[in-house]
Write a structure and sequence with these properties.
single chain; mainly alpha; cell membrane; metal ion binding
């Protein structure tokens, strides 16, 4: 086995580095530096979380019997291995910047025939959004536990809020999202064939509804903020972080 299939990708470490630099800048008293810092925290942190999300799928599949994920480089956290970089990283970052909607990112190709059971298949699908939820909880716990500058707390809170939205959105039982992937192994043959046909466009319809129908968007974000409060987040800090991140609006 090539050792490069086992090492953490330098690109992933670079994304973490961008996030850390953002944290330093967000801690400054200068307004411009604080804004730049929050932007870097959110962009670097969200891109890093996309890699961790896919890693969650891959490591669960590896433990469930699919040994091919290591050879494919999925365990290195390298964003280049998670399908097309534009669709997997750039487009989700663009949607976050425009509307605060964290699109599902890349995808790892799992050999489902190698998985030991339907339960393993379900756990592979759930591992990604659960990674987002875990990251959101860790970030909110850090903000609540440690005394930190207001800009840093706001940036981390907004990043945590995006993780929570990512979990809420991706756990929906809609074809193309991980929530559907968790129930798909248990569905009948006709239902699974319908899901395959709906997979390419169903998530886009969900996003279009959230963005295009004001009532739906309000309901979605109201639930997301309620859930964010439930896991210990500060809605006020998240909103401040959002305003600093999308400073042009």
């Amino acid at each position: 086995m090539n050792n490069t299939a086992k090492r953490v990708s330098p690109l992933f470490l670079a994304l973490l580095g961008v996030t850390v630099v953002g944290g330093v800048l967000a801690s400054q008293d200068n307004t411009a530096a604080r804004i730049a810092g929050v932007v870097l925290i959110v962009l670097g942190g969200w891109a890093s979380s996309l890699c961790l999300h896919e890693f969650g799928h891959a490591i669960t599949a590896f433990r469930g019997g699919d040994r091919e994920v290591r050879a494919k480089g999925y365990l290195t956290l390298d964003p280049r291995h998670y399908t097309d970089p534009v669709l997997s990283i750039v487009l989700p970052l663009l949607f976050v910047a425009i509307g605060g909607i964290p699109l599902p990112g890349g995808a790892v190709w799992i050999n489902h025939a190698a998985l030991r059971s339907r339960r393993s298949e379900s756990m592979v699908s759930l591992a990604g959004p659960l990674m987002n939820l875990a990251l959101g909880i860790l970030l909110t716990a850090a903000v609540a536990t440690f005394t930190m500058p207001a800009g840093l707390a706001a940036g981390l809170s907004y990043l945590a809020f995006l993780q929570v939205i990512g979990f809420v959105l991706n756990i929906l039982p809609v074809p193309g999202l991980d929530g559907y992937g968790a129930i798909e192994p248990w569905l009948s043959g006709p239902a699974r064939r319908f899901g395959e046909k709906a997979r390419p466009w169903a998530p886009l319809i969900i996003i279009a509804v959230i963005i295009g129908i004001p009532g739906a968007g309000v309901a979605f974000f109201s639930f997301a903020f309620w859930f964010f409060d439930l896991v210990g987040g500060s809605g006020l800090l998240a909103r401040i972080g959002d305003s600093l991140f999308r400073f042009w609006q």
